[in-house]
Amino acid sequence: MSKTPITKQRILGIDPGSRLTGFGIIDVDVKLTTYVASGSVQSARGSFPERLQLIFQSIGEIVAEYQPQIVAIESVFVHKNAGSALKLGQARAAALCATFCMAAEVHEYAPREIKQAIVGTGAATKEQVQHMVTSLLSLDGAPSADAADALAAALCCAHRQRMHVRLNDVAEMRVIR
Which residues contact 175 (CB under 8 A, 6 or more apart)? Predict the structure, then answer.
C-alpha cells in the first residue's frame, strides 16, 4: 500500500496563443482522472495589448471559478519566426500571471513532452492529440484543437505526478528492506 497519499487535485492545463488560448480542467486522484471543463479564449480582435488583457481576464475568471491547485502550461518554443515566439511568450505570460492569485503549483512542459506523454510520440499531430484526449477522458466528442492541447498538458502533468509517487514508493520500499 502506498504511504504517499494522493488527494483529489484539480489541474488547469493551458495551451497559450496570441489568438486562441486553450484551457482544460481535470480532477485527478489515485486512480481516476475526470474531465471538468475545457474551451478556448478567442482573442483575435483588437490591438495586441487588448488581446493580452482579454487572455489575462478570461483565464483569471476560469481560475476563480474552478480553483485549480496545479497549472500545467506549454513552454514557448521557437520554430521559424522569432516575432511569433515573442508574441506567444507574452500571451503565455498573460495567462500564467492570471493564475498567480490561487498560488497554484506551476509545471511547464515542452510541446513534444506533452505529445509523448499522451500519444506516445513527440511528433504527434493535433488530430492524434485530440483523439487520445477524447479517449483518455471518455469524452462524447473531440474538444477543439486548442482545448485538446490544454487538456493534454493537464493529463501530462497528472501522469508525471503519478509516476513520481510510484517511484517514491518503490524507493521507500527499498530503504525499508
Answer: none
Q: Is 153 exposed, middle or buried (0-12, 13-18, 19+ CB in 10 A)?
A: buried
74 is catalytic: yes
Could you tell me if 22 and 55 are in contact, meaning their C-beta atoms sit under 8 angstroms apart? Answer: no
pLDDT in tens, 87-125: 889 999 999 999 999 889 999 999 999 999 999 989 999
Does residue 27 have an active-site annotation?
A: no
Of residues 155, 165, 113, the one with CA closest to residue 130: 155
Chain mean pLDDT for the chain: 89
Please say if 15 is a catalytic residue.
yes
**Cα gap 177→171, rounded to integer Å:** 10
pTM of the complete model:
0.88
Spatial distance between the Cα atoms of 89 and 76, rounded to a whole number of angstroms: 6
